[in-house]
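Re: [ENG-882] Designed sequences occasionally contain unexpected residues at chain ends

Forwarding the minimal case from QA. Structure tokens:
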């Protein structure tokens, strides 16, 4: 996704990336980032929850309108309505993905840092 967003930006079209991994997205220096704490594959919110999806979409449009500097990040404070551990577990494939395996130490470090806050 970062490569595609960069290419689109290079052609003069502004982008907003909505991601469950905003720290990683920020390291790739994307122009505009919306961070959400949602299960993977549901970046805009729960299936059939139009109100939640609209909140995310409206936040992305506001960021597009208001971001004056590159690499602007906004983390949305929208709580996932179901038990997050169950939601993440239900999504997980039976075998760890190569990108997660490669970044597992960094992911765990980030989680520890979040727990300290």
């Amino acid at each position: 996704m970062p490569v595609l967003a960069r290419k689109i930006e290079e052609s003069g079209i502004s982008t907003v990336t909505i991601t469950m991994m905003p720290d990683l997205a920020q390291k790739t220096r994307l122009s505009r980032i919306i961070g959400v704490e949602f299960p993977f594959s549901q970046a805009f919110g729960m299936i059939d929850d139009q109100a939640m999806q609209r909140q995310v979409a409206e936040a992305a449009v506001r960021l597009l309108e208001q971001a004056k500097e590159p690499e602007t990040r906004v983390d949305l404070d929208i709580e996932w309505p179901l038990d997050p551990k169950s939601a993440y577990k239900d999504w997980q494939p039976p075998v760890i993905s190569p990108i997660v395996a490669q970044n597992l130490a960094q992911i765990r470090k980030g989680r520890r840092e979040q727990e300290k806050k």
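QA comment: On inspection the terminal residues look reasonable. The CA atoms of residues 56 and 77 lie 10 Å apart. Proposing we downgrade this to a documentation issue.
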